[in-house]
Amino acid sequence: MNAAVTIYHNPACGTSRNTLALIRNAGIEPAVILYLQTPPSRATLQTLIAAMDISVRQVLREKGTPYQELGLDDPKWTDDQLLDLIGQHPILLNRPIVVTALGTRLCRPSEAVLDILPAPQQGAFAKEDGEAVIDAGGNRVSAAGGKAD
């Protein structure tokens, strides 16, 4: 089965790698957008944020980004200004964002992707840190969120 699934992916991010592996564990080969090399357009960003039903601020990543030096914790920044800054500094976009026919999610923790995958898990899966997420029968081990990297 190859359902239409897209992941906005950063291969340097463990949560993003785990999310991609969970998608593939469902037998799905997603469209992988390396958003640091190919940033989403402003219109695409607005569509993704609206589909996730979250604010622009909620997609901002602080760790490992120019968030602090740009002073983005200041409420003076409008959504339009924040979108412009994400366009200039794609690393500010938190990841991974996954789009399926069942919804769009910022998948932190990575197992949040399980709620929107159109196919079941096909076998056991453990995160890179060894945390078991899926058992041999393809069932969730625990609904408790793991640690985010």
From TrEMBL:
Broadest EC class assigned to this enzyme: oxidoreductase
Catalysed reactions listed for this entry: [glutaredoxin]-dithiol + arsenate + glutathione + H(+) = glutathionyl-S-S-[glutaredoxin] + arsenite + H2O
Residue ranges crossing the lipid bilayer per the database entry: none
InterPro entries on file: Arsenate_reductase, Arsenate_reductase-like, Thioredoxin-like_sf
One biological process term in Gene Ontology: response to arsenic-containing substance
Keyword annotations: Arsenical resistance, Oxidoreductase
Domain of life: Bacteria
Coiled coil (residue ranges): none
Pfam families referenced in this protein's UniProt entry, alphabetically: ArsC
SUPFAM superfamilies: Thioredoxin-like
Molecular function, one GO term: arsenate reductase (glutaredoxin) activity
EC number per UniProt: 1.20.4.1
Family: Belongs to the ArsC family.
Listed name of the protein: Arsenate reductase
